[in-house]
Amino acid sequence: MTVIDKVKSAFTSDSPETTTTSTQSNATPSHTEEKNVPSHPKESNAKSVPETAVLSDKAVFDQNKVTVIFVLGGPGAGKGTQCEKLVNDYKFKHLSAGDLLREERNRPGSTYGELITEYIREGKIVPQEVTIKLLENAMSSTLASPPNTTNEWLNGKGRFLIDGFPRKMDQALKFDESVVKSSFVLFFSTNENILLERLLERGKTSGRDDDNKESIVKRFRTFVETSMPVVDYYRKLGKVVEIDSSPPIDEVYEKVKIEIDQRLNSSSTQTSNTTQSTSTTNASNDAAPILAPAI
Ligand SMILES: Nc1ncnc2c1ncn2[C@@H]1O[C@H](COP(=O)(O)OP(=O)(O)O)[C@@H](O)[C@H]1O
Ligand SMILES: O=c1ccn([C@@H]2O[C@H](COP(=O)(O)OP(=O)(O)O)[C@@H](O)[C@H]2O)c(=O)[nH]1
Q1: Any binding-site annotation on 107?
Q2: Which of 108, 179, 208, 277 is the 20 to 30 Å CA partner of 266?
Q3: Where is this region: NMPbind (predicted)?
Q4: Ligand 2 center to residue 20 CA distance, Å?
């Protein structure tokens, strides 16, 4: 029995040991059957249960200190490209859910390596416990060793761009509940022809086994069926900032900066120039929310 078979059989078990939450999505793609990762896989010895499968039932981080912006958009919309630019200008930590999954897949001894490989190749959404725990772990270690000494990262504070997540309703609700409530969503929209063209081009050098036409088609389907409901959910809450990502990269980024500046207390220039000493000057702002009133 392969690891995938073992995990799948655990998923389909009726055992009460299988983790369930009240936040399950109705938006499961029609072509796949996805269940949660069991918190205590039946056949495992204790060491094989990865930390990645146990989620808290209350928020791990204080939302007054830790700001999370979700970055969503179809595959190839330019999420990673724009995030990289924002990191330079606004001192965000960029966490790509897809990158974290690929790292976990490549980690020797990972229980979920084969499972992640199959889900990514099929364009399906990896069970939420794995992805959320990877994100939470990455956030914890970033906060423990902040990427810089700017005011945004003093005294336990931090600001994260979470890229390519949440892609399914259960993830969205569970992250808000168990990690920290997100502030808003940057949503990059464009059309499928552009996405396809970009992904095929990226596929020439990315080394990703899902940047091929067959996987891309599946990813598009998952995006429409499973991820767009997440965008719609946040849209109803007034939390979506939609940006057309069809124009050239720098043009898109100009729009992104305008939107971000409106929502953060400091502009990119101010933030970029902030040093430890100016942070001290601003220390009285510590408890102030980083974000302007809800959009
Ligand atoms: N606005 C843009 N115009 C043209 N090409 C772009 C644009 N944004 C991104 N790209 C290119 O498209 C590909 C996909 O972008 P990427 O940021 O990796 O997308 P995502 O993270 O949304 O999957 C990359 O090769 C990138 O260089
Ligand atoms: O929260 C997530 C994010 C990504 N993925 C998987 O990782 C793949 C690649 O995602 P990534 O964001 O790296 O790339 P994109 O599809 O946006 O180009 C997706 O198709 C999914 O299979 C996932 O299961 N859950």
Answers
A1: no
A2: 179
A3: 96-126
A4: 22
pTM value is 0.80
The answer to whether 235 is annotated as binding is no
The tens digit of pLDDT for each residue in 70-124 reads 999 999 999 999 999 999 899 999 999 999 999 999 999 999 999 999 999 999 9
Range of 223's domain? 67-265
Tokens of 119: 């889900």
Question: What's the 200 CA to ligand 1 centre distance in angstroms?
Answer: 11
Q: What's the domain count of the chain? A: 1
Helix (H, G, I), strand (E, B) or coil at 158: strand
| Distance, CA of 265 to CA of 260 (rounded, Å) | 9
From the centroid of its chain, how far is CA 112?
18
What stretches of the chain adopt beta strand conformation (E)? 66-73, 93-96, 158-163, 184-189, 240-244
Distance CA 261, CA 269 (A): 10
Give the model confidence (pLDDT) of 269-288 as tens digits: 443 333 322 222 222 222 22
Both tokens of 162, joined, read 């979470």
CATH of the domain at 224: 3.40.50.300
H-run or E-run covering 121: helix 113-121
Extract the runs of DSSP E, i.e. beta strands, from 151-193: 158-163, 184-189
Whether complex ipTM tops 0.85: yes
Give CA–CA dist 243/57, Å, rounded.
Answer: 33
> How many Cβ atoms from other residues are within 10 Å of residue 234's Cβ?
20
- Residue 71's CB is within 10 A of a number of other CB atoms, namely 27
Evaluate whether residue 74 is within a structural domain: yes
Residue with CA at minimum distance from ligand 2 atom 16: 75
- Count other C-beta atoms under 10 Å from residue 33's C-beta: 11
Sign of CA dihedral 193, 195, 199, 201: positive
Q: Is residue 234 part of a domain?
A: yes
User: Cα of 198 to ligand 1 centre, how many Å?
Assistant: 6
Written as one string, the DSSP assignment of 255-269 is HHHHHHHHHBSS-HH
